[in-house]
Amino acid sequence: MGDEQNSDLLQGYEAIGRHLHMSPDATKHRVKSEGIPVFRMGRIVCARRSTLNAWLVEREAAAHTSKGRV
């Protein structure tokens, strides 16, 4: 993997949670309940910062739309 791909990769619930400003336990719960986009490399749960940021933008847009805002 290139340096750019490596810097985009988060490994483990702790790292993913830090990026999302939540605890590892809350992150694990929300992966299951809210569909935080993760994948596995063997037994390690991973995510990409870029994918998480895009997911957050989608959720924000959906929240604004559901409240009648555009």
Which helices and strands appear, and what pairs or packs with what?
Layout: H1 3-8, E1 9-11, H2 13-20, H3 24-34, E2 39-41, E3 44-48, H4 49-66
Notes on the protein architecture:
The chain is α+β, with helices and mostly antiparallel strands. The chain has one domain. The protein contains 4 helices and 3 strands. It has helices at 3-8, 13-20, 24-34, 49-66; strands at residues 9-11, 39-41, 44-48. The protein has a 3-stranded antiparallel sheet. Helix 2 (13-20) crosses helix 3. The longest helix is centred in the C-terminal third of the chain and has 18 residues, at 49-66. The chain is globular, with a radius of gyration of 13 Å. The model has no long low-confidence stretch (mean pLDDT 91).
Give descriptors for this structure.
70 residues, 16% strand, 4 helices, single chain, alpha+beta
H/E series: HEHHEEH
Ranges with pLDDT <50 over ≥5 residues?
A: none
Main pleated-sheet profile? 3 strands, antiparallel
Task: Domain count, please report it.
Answer: 1
Total helical segments: 4
* Terminal-residue CA separation: 39 Å
Widest sheet, order of strands? 1-3-2
Which structural class do the helices and strands define? Answer: alpha+beta
Average pLDDT rating:
91
Please report which band the strand proportion falls in: under 5%, 5-15%, 15-25%, 25-35%, 35-45% or over 45%. Answer: 15-25%
Radius of gyration: 13 Å
Overall morphology: globular
Indicate the percent of residues in helices. Answer: 55-70%
The total strand number stands at 3
